[in-house]
Design brief:
The chain has 362 residues and is an alpha/beta fold. It has eight helices and 15 strands.
Length: 362
């Protein structure tokens, strides 16, 4: 069965694109052109067809083409989970981002019921050696791909935690002020913890027995506070400590994600740069395989400059796996030669230095 797909894409006043129109046929897409031509901006536009702030985590006002800054719009026709849909997301001036599906206003969470989008970008290359915050975002994006309501639980938890942190900073000592907000944190945390654990189980299953040129990674959740059986009780017991710190020191916002290169038994943080990249690609492919098994259709996969880090054999293996999944992978690279292993199985799009786009069908 064919994967989920973008069939047409229109960018208006979006980043470097004044007006760009693209048509796709469901096959993988190779976008090539010089650095700074706007290739990644096309991927970012597609990432906004899923819940959240997209692959750059940019605020809505940052996406408008400069110097005009009059707002922006991304419109797409998609072969979605249940049916074809028209999806539009836009912002006018400094207004918040708006989503419309088939002409009707919709919350961002609804996007996850129409389309599933995964991505890997160069900014993630240092994932295993930088701060835990990036790994939590990576974990939550994978989790959100399986459970679109996960984002709502994260938002509910963050809102309740901000309220508790304000009480802590204001040195409020009356227990009555804390009970309700800590109960809300605990309720959302239970959903977050269960969703994350379920996502890691699905990823592990997707890696078992998979014939792949990319290394398997064993993932583990780490709780620096030692974990908790009942977060509400743990928060109540830790108020004095948290008040001294001025913030909440327990909960899912403190969880870290550890990865081990299975075949070598080595932590991802101790692997070479090339091995770390291979582990990331492996996890994105496992995520896509797991979603394809769940949904009966592979997700859309965005791979920014991924081919530049792979030798010819690994590039060919990556394209083979994408095609075997039936996934519409939209990839970028500076040279068309980077996509030679894709051959007639994909489409090519050239972006020139002025940002103009010329589509070439293979």
């Amino acid at each position: 069965m064919a994967g989920l797909a973008i069939t047409s894409l229109v960018l208006s006043q979006f980043r470097s694109h004044g007006l760009t129109r693209l048509a796709f046929d469901g096959r993988p897409v190779a976008i090539h052109g010089p650095n700074g031509a706007g290739k990644t901006n096309i991927l970012e536009a597609v990432s906004l067809l899923s819940p959240g702030r997209g692959l750059r985590r940019a605020a809505a006002e940052e996406l408008a083409r400069r110097p005009e800054a009059i707002g922006w719009k991304v419109a797409a026709e998609v072969d979605g989970l249940d049916a074809p849909h028209e999806v539009v997301t836009f912002a006018e001036g400094l207004e918040a981002r708006v989503v419309r599906i088939d002409g009707k206003a919709a919350p961002q969470a609804r996007l996850g019921q129409v389309l599933r989008v995964l991505w890997l970008v160069p900014a993630m290359d240092r994932l295993w050696i930088e701060a835990a915050e990036g790994r939590r975002r990576f974990l939550d994006r994978m989790t959100l791909s399986f459970m679109p309501d996960h984002g709502e639980a994260v938002l509910a938890y963050d809102k309740a935690m901000r309220e508790r942190n304000r009480l802590l900073k204001d040195q409020i000592r009356d227990a009555g002020w804390y009970g309700a907000v800590e109960a809300r944190m605990a309720e959302a945390a239970a959903v977050i913890d269960a969703n994350r654990a379920a996502a890691l189980t699905r990823l592990a299953r997707a890696q078992e027995g998979a014939e792949t040129a990319f290394p398997r990674a064993d993932l583990t959740l780490l709780h620096p506070d030692g974990g908790y059986d009942d977060l509400a009780l743990a928060l109540a017991a830790g108020r004095a400590r948290d008040m001294a710190a001025g913030r909440s020191l327990q909960g899912p916002h403190r969880v870290d994600l550890a990865a081990v290169y299975t075949a070598k038994g080595v932590s991802a943080a101790q692997c070479s740069t090339g091995e770390q990249k291979a582990l990331l690609i492996s996890l994105i492919l496992a995520n896509a395989r797991a979603l394809a098994a769940d949904l009966g259709r592979a997700p859309v996969v965005l791979l920014d400059e991924v081919a530049a880090h792979l030798d010819a054999a690994r590039r060919a293996a990556l394209y083979d796996e994408i095609c075997a999944l039936g996934a519409q992978a939209i990839m970028t690279g500076t040279e068309p030669a980077l996509f030679e292993g894709l051959d007639q199985r994909g489409q090519a799009v050239r972006v020139d230095a002025a940002g103009a786009v010329a589509e070439v069908r293979q």
